[in-house]
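User: These chains co-purify. Model them together.
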Amino acid sequence: MRGISFDIAHLLAGSLVLVSFMQLYQDRLYALLNIYALHAFVLAASVAWQAFVQDAPHLYLTAVIALVFKAVIIPTALHRIIVRLGIHREIETVVGVGPAMLLGMGLVALSMVVMLRVTADADPLAREDLAFALSVVLLGLLMMVTRRNAVSQVVGFMSLENGLVLAATGAKGMPLVVEISVAFSVLIAFIVIGIFLFRIRERFDTVDLQALDRFRGERR
Amino acid sequence: MIDALTGVLLVPAAAAVLFAATPGYRVTARLNVVAALLTFLIAASLFVIEPKSGPYLLVDDLNKVFIVLTTFVAFTTSVFSASYIGHEIDIGRLTPTFVRFYHAMYQTLMFAMNLALVANNIGLMWVAIELATLTTVLMVGIYRTHEALEAAWKYFILGSVGIALALFGTILVYMAARPVVGEGLDAMVWTVLVTQAAKFDPALLNVAFVFLLLGYGTKVGLAPLHAWLPDAHAEGPTPISAVLSGLLLNVALYALLRFKMLLALNPAAIAPGPLMVTMGLISCVFAAFMLYRRRDIKRMFAYSSIEHMGIIVFAFGMGGALANFAGLLHMTMHSLTKSAIFFAVGHVAQVKGTQKIADIGGLTVTNPVLGWGLVLGVVAIAGLPPLGIFMSEFLVVSSTFAREPWLATILVFGILVALGGLFLRLNTIAFGEPRGPTAAAEASYVPMFIHLAMVFTAGIYMPPALVTGFENVARLLG
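Assistant: Joint model of the two components:
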């Protein structure tokens, strides 16, 4: 397994983590969406490479979903929504960029320590992939908690989900990967685009979740 | 080949499609009851003829109990839902289009929960629980008020993070199984995993269980991952609150129990018990204190659900034949009682036109049947003898006292604090000066009293068949 194919898989998974970091410090929504498209593109490349290395043609389907749906359709749709809502270009982060990056590095270190120690016997490709995947998942979570804006929280969730797809494709021969990635796409498409953003806009004239907090049932 | 296992999936799936296509909402409300009854009857037939488990679907003593309980409560809730939704249309809170959507979603949720319970594949089970989350998110937001949207959003975000973590755990379980079982579908099939679990890599299983506990634990509503639960219960339609508390939390718990069984079979893996005991105790005590400052009646009972899920997870975490039996009994009793309470609360909120506790008063005077039904329900949920929950709580506590007296003391403390909180509020709601509108409720009391009668009976007399059934499951859980 060592050799060029391993190196390429390593490179692609590593780039995914790097792009996750790039998302953390974007302070404008447009830029954030572009970086997300890049994230999905890198994921598609990584999945396609796994499909090639593992000789698992069904994974190409997952790669195509990632490429078409996540890297093109979703960012375009979100772009349109942002334009239509006319929302502020600035993203307010709850935590500043510096602390967010430091926290992110801490999380990556954590996932390396946990996963590499645990999977000592597994084959190196799956092992590295899993460690990177957990990093992407945790960085996605971090992004969700450091943002207030509904759109950027959704982007955080989607990059978290990309991490899961990376993990699922890295686990060699895992069945149902395609089904799971479809299920996730349905989840995202259905809820995010179709319903919530429009209704939140309709009701609140903002997608800033802090505005939603005012309507909490208990603080009347 | 259609057997009972595919039946409990096909009926709700077909009904969902049918309801989405049928415009007449009063007809669909009745058909909803018929479909739910049919599903329940098919599920009950599992006790008579047990179909064979395949690579995708499975039936054993454990999930039989869950399936029958789920389909039964789903059936009674559909009866309640018919009268509840009728009222919502009359006052114009829901439009016919939304009701059509609601009924289709109700059956989709039933399909998803049944699928999660019969799935013999950890990936399929995960997909089913995701589908259940999705449908309930949509139903919680159905009123489209500020509060409902916030609740649905919060539920969506926290629920998605939960299932994402659960998926990571699922992938790790596959990774652990792969070297032993081999690549492909077999490494995700329960019945195969269970036979080989002793040879899995324990370190991977440990990490997997932590993710699964956090992921599915979010769906169970364990503190500190419970934040979505009170909002979702308070802002959605009340039948959905009943289904959430009575059923969906159980389904997530079922997933957790399956993985616990897997870990228990591997001697080198960590014992999942202490983790579950800790989270259960925290949830129980935390929720008990939260009961005191509630102003919204549905939120209050949502916190009570967290408390009881805490007790149940605690019992299963302690393990052993007696504690498992108690946990199973408590889960059944809690499902029945809590859904009965939500049936009552739903009608109360409709009569009074509000969910604020401050605006509800003297129910036993203004609406005696409803009021006393609620009183009985709260007495049951607080765990007073001779009702069923007293029985199960007594079993949990007494079996724990023999092994870990300190843990039992904390648990009893939590239960007593919760009892105080519930009665404090019940006093103003049910007795005292009547407040708010006093119109008679157009309610169907039958589901509520059937549940309460069952809980009452279970406290006094348990049919031997039920006891042996539960004992078998308790042994299975180890």
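Chain B has a mean pLDDT of 90.
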